[in-house]
């Protein structure tokens, strides 16, 4: 189980078993807030099943979606390293099961196995680099470029091609910082051009390489 989580990839089985013994499993119905932006809490959640939306609320109350997470992803990793308030809120968009690891339990594990900390920090650094790329795209790409980037980021390889999880036009709009109407227009044009299609589960299928500009 934990050996499939990037944060713990490469850890020996005995250490993975010890780490698993320090976690607690929780189940959340769809629409549950797992953590709230600004709250003081210090636990990591590893997704066993389901789907989460990570978002922040701006100064004017506008919601900005940072990412969608699914099975094998994790959230709350920064709280294992500091005691600062949560930087984002996390909402379940489907029934979700997670393993929760508290900061106290994590510290005990690292005290016993200090050699495991550096590989985990490398994974966290990779996440921070991805966040830098997202910030850069918001400031340098036009709306179409940001929409295309989200589609490619979210899509996973399957037998029929690359398919995104189910996302509403509003979800995409909140991820790229534009109106829902603009997203709808771009997706409609991509469908007309044969670049994407919508499957029976209302997921976006990328049929061929998206154009670099629109």
UniProtKB/TrEMBL annotation:
<dbReference type="GO" id="GO:0005829">
    <property type="term" value="C:cytosol"/>
</dbReference>
<dbReference type="InterPro" id="IPR014710">
    <property type="entry name" value="RmlC-like_jellyroll"/>
</dbReference>
<keyword id="KW-0675">Receptor</keyword>
<keyword id="KW-0238">DNA-binding</keyword>
<feature type="domain" description="HTH crp-type">
    <location>
        <begin position="141"/>
        <end position="209"/>
    </location>
</feature>
<dbReference type="GO" id="GO:0003677">
    <property type="term" value="F:DNA binding"/>
</dbReference>
<dbReference type="GO" id="GO:0003700">
    <property type="term" value="F:DNA-binding transcription factor activity"/>
</dbReference>
<protein>
    <submittedName>
        <fullName>CRP/FNR family transcriptional regulator, cyclic AMP receptor protein</fullName>
    </submittedName>
</protein>
<feature type="domain" description="Cyclic nucleotide-binding">
    <location>
        <begin position="7"/>
        <end position="127"/>
    </location>
</feature>
<dbReference type="InterPro" id="IPR012318">
    <property type="entry name" value="HTH_CRP"/>
</dbReference>
<dbReference type="InterPro" id="IPR050397">
    <property type="entry name" value="Env_Response_Regulators"/>
</dbReference>
<dbReference type="Pfam" id="PF13545">
    <property type="entry name" value="HTH_Crp_2"/>
</dbReference>
<dbReference type="Pfam" id="PF00027">
    <property type="entry name" value="cNMP_binding"/>
</dbReference>
<dbReference type="InterPro" id="IPR018490">
    <property type="entry name" value="cNMP-bd_dom_sf"/>
</dbReference>
<dbReference type="InterPro" id="IPR000595">
    <property type="entry name" value="cNMP-bd_dom"/>
</dbReference>
<keyword id="KW-0804">Transcription</keyword>
<dbReference type="InterPro" id="IPR036390">
    <property type="entry name" value="WH_DNA-bd_sf"/>
</dbReference>
<dbReference type="InterPro" id="IPR018488">
    <property type="entry name" value="cNMP-bd_CS"/>
</dbReference>
<keyword id="KW-0805">Transcription regulation</keyword>
<dbReference type="InterPro" id="IPR036388">
    <property type="entry name" value="WH-like_DNA-bd_sf"/>
</dbReference>
<dbReference type="InterPro" id="IPR018335">
    <property type="entry name" value="Tscrpt_reg_HTH_Crp-type_CS"/>
</dbReference>
